Amino acid sequence: MKLNKLLTVHLLWVSVMFGPAAAVAQVQPQPKKVTRTDTLKVISDDAFIPPDTVLPGQKKPFTESQRLEADNSRFFKRAVIPAAVLIGVGVYTTGGRGIINSQDVFDYRTRVFPEFATNADDFLMLAPLAALYGFNLVSSQNRHELSRQTLLLVSAGALTSAVVWPVKGLTDVDRPNGKPHAFPSGHTAYAFTIATFMDKEFRHKSPWVSVVSYGLAGGTGVLRVLNNAHWMSDVLAGAGVGILSVNTVYWIHAKLTQGGGLNTAVVPVMLPNGSPGVGFHMQF
Q1: Which residue has the higher pLDDT, 17 or 87?
Q2: Quick one: how many helices (H) and strands (E) in the chain?
Q3: Which residues pair with 94 in a beta bridge?
Q4: C-alpha distance from residue 119 to each of 4, 136, 188, 227 (Å)
Q5: Which tens digit of pLDDT belongs to each residue from 187-212?
Q6: Is 139 helix (H, G, I), strand (E, B) or coil?
Q7: Distances in Å between the alpha carbon of 51 and those of 40, 41, 64, 104, 218?
Q8: CA 258, 158, 68: angle at the middle one, nearest 5?
């Protein structure tokens, strides 16, 4: 048991060191030529609002990433491609395919860590959530108000679930321990959902938030393999699903709100029959 605990600690450190590859891609600033048009943000056809304006649902002024969140090419390059690569590699390495495949990793695990068992993976993926609400108490630099953060996180989790559970049933792959519904890994998918959400909300505060969050998510995936609960291919695909789900939710949110909150208003109106009524107006 002492060996298992020691290995768990070392795996977590390895994950913190090497798991943040996705975070680095998110955090690296992109060189951008500044022009006069960058000083204005189009909110509607007939209104311009400076990029430092705080809109409904927005906790602080726009960051550069928020102004670009709805950009289709950016979404494709920073979300669709990385997720597709992870899912594609996961599918390809199923069984004995690939130079390093799921069967090779399983054989290595069985040979080197035959008795490894821990429940840490059940809790590790949730660790960033505690940090999320802790940051909201001590920091003023998160992107959105707490209520909107919760809405975005729940939406991303729902999208992840809508992908993971039907695919588990359709693929019907047995786990290494003989249990059903291996592909993709739900633990890993939710871990990367939470990590990507933390990256979205706090990367401008410190890149270490992204690095640690993705490290914990990577550690969750490693522990799922060492616990004999999943194949390597399940973990890779789960990570891709989590990353894509969060980025998709933020992309749609930015499309609908143009970086801020929904611009809504309730106004009194007169109905055709002469009775008073209430009208609801929403501007995208």
Answers
A1: 87
A2: 12, 4
A3: none
A4: 11, 28, 14, 9
A5: 999 999 999 999 988 887 778 888 99
A6: coil
A7: 6, 6, 9, 51, 35
A8: 25
